[in-house]
Design a protein that fits this description.
The chain has helices spanning 4-12, 23-28, 49-62, 113-120, 139-145, 152-155, 185-192, 196-217, 243-246, 283-293, 303-312, 316-319, 337-354, and strands at residues 19-20, 42-44, 66-69, 84-87, 95-99, 104-107, 125-126, 162-168, 174-178, 180-181, 235-236, 239-240, 255-262, 264-265, 269-277, 297-302, 326-334, 360-363. With 364 residues, it is an alpha+beta fold. The strands form five sheets. Strands 5-6-13-8-9 form a five-stranded antiparallel sheet. Strands 1-2-4-3 form a four-stranded mixed sheet, with helices on one face. Strand 11 and strand 12 form a beta hairpin. The protein starts with a helix and ends with a strand.
């Protein structure tokens, strides 16, 4: 076993970006937002995609594990391990292209979500997935985890907004995913290639040909499915897209070096309301109704959190009835203010009046 300093020194010979094997840097990268702590072998800060390729190639030759990392905002410990840590947030953090007319943006994996949306705002666009860590999480981490957020009900998880990915495979080979016609010549060409890339295309396509019916029959019918590998949507509607397999794979299949992402028009109007309930079991039917109406956001607030809020701000007693069991914060967005305000009024009329599910609707 080589020492951390020796591994860092050898790896530095292959990279333009800095590599650190000292105790301080290893300690700094031994934790994330989770409860776990694992000291890495060393920490590398790739300067470009070539550095990522060189680092993975070195790790392959030496038989060493390697883990890509962004902001370290996960609460599950994914960026931790006795491995070479690739911090992609230091240098690979540029928005490469914004194309509002075609509805896409090209980014490096270290771009922070909040920075991307600030860059998109002047063109009237935004990237829809919005995890609570959006002020510091990176796009690479969002792709790795198939991140979602409060607006998932309307806009879906990250996988819905990924158009193409540039990545590096475990053998150090560059790899690009894109949406291809299942019966088209480009997919046929890739499946015929005698390379690791061709092997992947052949293998995944054969897997889907053999098991597509079973996969779709057993597919969970939920809006947010982030468990395991997303084989369900690799082949869909006559298309084949390996981006859908990489999104959510948590760096186990490839390391992303660039992403082309779908961007949407910023809603011109939003309306927000607090929907209160005196029965927990009434929330389920209410949520189903709100999804049918196209609510852009729903956040559930249970009794314990309401009690904590009251304790922190006694003024809430006058605002929130004492017999509340829970509440929903609900948002509608759209093109016109009158439209979203009408949706709030309809919500009150139906959920409180007609169905008797909610005790009150309090518009913001």
């Amino acid at each position: 076993m080589q020492s951390a300093e020796a591994i860092a020194k050898e790896l530095q010979r292959h990279l333009k970006g800095a590599v650190h094997g000292d105790e301080l840097y290893r300690y700094m990268y031994s934790s994330d937002a989770s409860i776990f702590k694992v000291v890495p072998l060393c920490v590398a800060m790739p300067r470009d995609a070539e550095d990522v390729l060189a680092a993975i190639d070195y790790a392959r030759r030496e038989g060493l594990p390697i883990i890509a990392r962004g902001a370290g905002s996960s609460r599950c410990g994914q960026p931790l391990g006795e491995a070479i840590i690739l911090d992609l947030s230091v240098h690979l953090n540029q928005v490469l292209e914004i194309n509002p007319d075609q509805g896409y943006v090209r980014v490096q994996p270290g771009v922070v979500l909040a920075d991307l949306n600030r860059a998109l705002k002047p063109s009237g666009k935004f990237f829809a997935p919005d995890p609570s860590s959006g002020d510091w999480c990176t796009l690479g981490g969002m792709i790795a985890n198939n991140a979602s957020g409060a607006h998932t009900g309307k806009y879906g998880t990250t996988k819905r907004h990924v158009l193409a990915l540039d990545a590096v495979l475990a053998n150090g080979q560059a790899f690009r995913t894109q949406r291809l016609a299942w019966d088209g010549p480009e997919l046929a060409r890739l499946r015929a290639e005698r390379s690791r890339e061709g092997e992947i295309y052949r293998g995944v396509a054969a897997l889907l040909e053999a098991h597509q019916v079973r996969l779709q029959a057993r597919r969970p019918q939920v809006r947010k499915d982030v468990c395991g590998y997303n084989l369900y949507e690799v082949r869909e509607n006559g298309a084949f897209d390996l981006s859908q397999l990489l999104v959510g794979s948590e760096g186990t299949l490839a390391v992303v070096t660039e992403a082309m992402l779908r961007i949407l028009d910023l809603p011109k109007a939003k309306a927000l309301a607090l929907v209160t309930f005196d029965r927990l079991e009434a929330v389920g039917p209410a949520v189903c109704q709100l999804l049918e109406w196209g609510a852009s956001m729903m956040e559930f607030v249970e009794a314990t959190l309401l009690a904590i809020a009251r304790k922190g701000d006694p003024a809430l007693d006058a605002f929130l009835p004492r017999d509340l069991e829970c509440a929903l914060i609900v948002e509608f967005d759209g093109a016109e203010r009158a439209q979203v305000e009408e949706q709030i009024r309809r919500m009150e009329h139906v959920l409180v009046g007609e169905l008797g599910l909610a005790s009150a609707v309090k518009p913001a």
